[in-house]
Amino acid sequence: MTPGRATVAAALLVAGIASVQLVGVPVGLAGTGGSDGGNRVTVHAWNGWSGQGGGAASDGSGSGGEGGASPGVSCTYTPVPPAEAAQLGPGGGPEAGQWYEISCAGDGTTYPPITAWIAGSSGSPAPVAPTPLDEAETAESSMTLPSPSIHTDPQGTSFVNLATWLWVASSVWHPYTATASAGGVTAKATAVPALVDFSMGDGANVVCDGPGTPYEPDDTDGAQFSYCTYVYRVSSAGQPSPDGDPNDAAFTITATITWDVSWTAIGERGGGTLPPLQTSSTALLRVEQIESVVEP
Q1: Measuring CA to CA, which of 37, 68, 121, 178 is 20 to 30 A from 208?
Q2: Where in the chain is the domain with CATH 2.60.40.10?
């Protein structure tokens, strides 16, 4: 049994449409008709009659009296995606049902959209047909992206006022993809590394648009260049020590890669962007102060 006229009329009343009578497609859970495989239902209503006589014919048309029916109101009920429905809660009453986004227009008016719980009597909500976006989000959540492997030069111990080179392993700097399918719908998510943010442990950050450039000890400094370096102005004295020895006090460097994520539907139109992802790792770096002695 699908929700009755009174249940749906109550939802329309929330939208500000009074004294409605429903004709056309009955509103139900997924699978009750509509133009997209049952995932969206359009219901037509009118707000009473002018003139005398008239009524609703069995095929949903109105046979009015002298004045006929006023212009109809059309409402579209779209099931709320599962992730959003979970945030709305279990529903609006003891009966099982489904959260719907309801959009109505007619009588020369476009009514503000509302979100409403429409109860059914099946004992449990009918399954909602997946959309390409649903599967894209599932694909994104299934991704296992690599954490950056941090490299510095000097390695292990750097020095105040010396440019320290920073980079992550270039082997991770490429797109990663994942696909997900359900109910005949398939989508692919693609994560592309966009930038790496180095938190240097002294309150400063270095943001690099790529993985950075490895330092080549066999090349001269004049023959190589990096856009991803940092100069410490203070030593790491007083910082936490990994072994408890104050002479081994070090800054903790945290590298965080931000991944831009896009998606495309497979076998049908659809695509867009998804929230970015991030992966991080840490490394320790001692920074010493070079003492100089000026002799007379």
Answers
A1: 178
A2: 134-288
